[in-house]
Amino acid sequence: MINKYKWYEYILIYAGIALFVAFMLAPFLEAFLVSMRPLSEIFTIPYAFLTDNMSFDAYFDMWRNVPRLHIYIMNSFFIATAVTIIALICVIPAAWGFARFEFKGRDAILGAFLAINMVGGTVLIITLYKLMQKLGFLNTYWAMIIPGAAFSIPTGIWLMRSYLMKIPKSLEEAAWVDGASRLYILRRIILPIAMPGIIVVAIATFIGAYAQQFLFALTFNSQDSLNPLPVGIYQFFGRQEIIWNELMAASLVGILPVLIIYIFLQRYIVAGLTAGAVKE
Amino acid sequence: MGQLKLENLKKSFGTVEVIKGVSLDVKHGEFIVFVGPSGCGKSTLLRMIAGLEDITEGDVIIDDVRVNALPPVKRGIAMVFQSYALYPHMSVYENIAFPLRVEKLPQAEVDEKVHKAADILKLNERLQYRPGELSGGQRQRVAIGRAIVREPSIFLFDEPLSNLDAALRASMRIELSKLHHDLDATMIYVTHDQIEAMTMADRIVVLDGGVISQVGSPLELYHSPDNLFVAGFIGNPKMNFMDVTCTGVGKNSIDVELVTGEKLTIPVTARAGIEGQKLTLGIRPEHTTTDGCDITISLNANVVERLGAHTVVYADAPGVELGDDPEAANRFSSIQGGMANIRANQRFDIGIKASDCHLFDEQGAAFKRNIDLSSLDLPEMQASA
Hints:
The complex is a heterodimer.
Chain A: H1 7-36, H2 57-65, H3 69-100, H4 106-119, H5 125-135, H6 142-164, H7 169-177, H8 182-193, H9 195-220, H10 229-232, H11 244-273
Helix pairs in contact in A: 1-11, 2-11, 3-6, 3-9, 3-11, 4-6, 6-9, 7-8, 9-11
Chain B: E1 4-13, E2 16-26, E3 31-35, H1 42-50, E4 57-62, E5 65-66, E6 77-80, H2 92-103, H3 107-121, H4 136-148, E7 154-158, H5 166-183, E8 186-191, H6 194-200, E9 203-208, E10 211-216, H7 218-223, H8 228-233, E11 240-249, E12 254-258, E13 263-266, E14 278-283, E15 295-306, E16 310-322, E17 329-337, E18 347-352, E19 358-360, H9 378-384
Parallel strand pairs in B: 3-8, 3-9, 6-7, 7-8
Antiparallel strand pairs in B: 1-2, 1-4, 4-5, 9-10, 11-12, 11-14, 11-16, 12-13, 14-19, 15-16, 15-18, 16-17
């Protein structure tokens, strides 16, 4: 067997994995511990893992201190969902076009998409502000949804295209010979077969949109009732002090929807990333 | 009806011309096989008929209608792909019903047609399965079922059996021949396997480098190949080619001398002015037994393959080529009886009968053999009756 390791190699491998996982999960653990502590115990020196009077109080108090918290969470969810849907509507036909059809400038456009990805939203934020202003989208959901979708489409096209290219061309040819139109082929053949890939793109877009909305919301929106969670939790920054425990509790609750979606769709992600199992 | 006419068909990919002018007339009900080595353009030609490739020049005419610009579905064809091209997310039933769903036929009619096709192909038990749960032969039958329900006038097959194992291929060959008989439809079949071509075709179209090398019934191609390419392509093991010198021209024969000095008088239609020229003599391995032969040659056996029914012997022989295979230069093959007493590295005798020989000129064109081929045209007429 080629993947047979010696015992000390196993120890090294697992130590490496443990280190990596610790780095990834430590912030979450700390956030959770902070959310459990009373405010007075948060900055104890020396650091104590477990402190006195730990409780879930912050998870109840936060709704009272920031009455619109549930609206922020809903906004976050709504914006990310809208971004995902719009992005998918654009990505799937576009990726199919890039994967299957020969046309002038195809590779140039694909290259341009990659270049845009490298620039990112932050650099363009001022021009985007002017654009949103001209279009009258400032202080509406659109100001957060449209840039969010726009910036996730190029990545989506790249991901989706590589997936679609693995679907045998003869499937489409067979359907074409049988009289199916391009849209019929897309709907009845490509979409069902590409479903694992589509779900991967959807999840990647959703998570991206969830994380990305902070920048757009902060810049393009000043209407509190439209704010997503990352901006909303600023209200825990009081005049005198920052209510860290409730802030952390709100953050964790805000992550929850993504986490739940991820757990449910995990098997598709695995299936999608190990694709190629499509062939008849 | 299923008449097909190709008129001076050409196809170029960029500057590369892959089909260099193909003309062919196919009658209704014929089973036509396109055969040739890989890269000869046979699949491209089929895809041009199907409407999957644009036509650079020339016309495809189906039932007296020029279909060059028509989409596949309007041409009255159905195609079966090499990879089966089944939809993995649909049941067998839905796979077969797909063309009918596209046409938006009422459910009752879909049901009737799918079951009829399933009956013909013995797929009734499998209608609710997914393609992934079927064996290779069953998948191929589903693909054929999808073609049948459309009731096309012309079926196009693109190497449909090449993904199956040898035993299954043999039984599918028989099923396809039966299907052709039952459906009374025109079939165009692409393969690189000459056994499929010989066993199923009414007429074989041998393609070489984008042009038709010869069209004819299987036995016509076997007994009277027009040129070296067809002679070397049809038949297995391949025909032996020997360099000979023309020593004289008779009324209906040509005298030749082998490199070993033996002389033969080959009964072919001769033409004047070829005395002294280098010609190529072709003799099939199955025509090299010593019974009733005109000359015998002694050879040294290299490899002896015992197949039970007969024995294939390969021997070194200078100036001999096996088919068009450059690897097989200076090798002579002979089919002997199953119990032939021949061992490797021993000498053995082969016999050559002048009437079995083929003779080709310097350009590779055959001199017409003096054999009666009229009886060989029968199968074609029977099939369309």
